[in-house]
Predict the 3D structure of the following.
Amino acid sequence: MTEPTQVVHIRDAVPGDGDALAELHARSRAVYYRAGGHEVASHPDEEYRELWRKMVDDPRLAVLVAAVDDEIVGVVTVDADEVFPTRAPHEKRVRLAGIFVDPGQWNIGVGTALMARFVSIARQADAVGEVEVWERNSRAIRFYERHGWTRDGTSRPGPAGAAYLGYVHLP
């Protein structure tokens, strides 16, 4: 007998989601940083929770949550005001600030559903998507590449002596 497919619903974050998003983000990043040899807290402190509450309320950000049976299992954050011209004439970009899935919900389509929503947002803006990925997060790199993202040659310093690498997704 096959296991039933879980339906992933994407919706806008609401003010009451901040604490759950802080907890989800802390769990997710603790797993991928640990896999890359860097330790971070897996439980958010009050300051971290307040940061997520403010992000949910920030009109410059689009914070979308993925839910399965009303449980928040993923989040994508888009800099809504970051559709901006680049050095290339007539090119606009929209920034994927972060996409995170609860580690207990990996491999059921949550990340793919969130990515599809981001790509839709970028296409509606006729913009190139951009994101930075920690170079030791091989799981995320494979995910982005599988969804059509390519390296753009940029990088900036990151934790544990590993860089954040720039990726783009063409419309």
About this structure: The CA atoms of residues 12 and 64 lie 4 Å apart. The first strand starts at residue 9 and ends at 12.
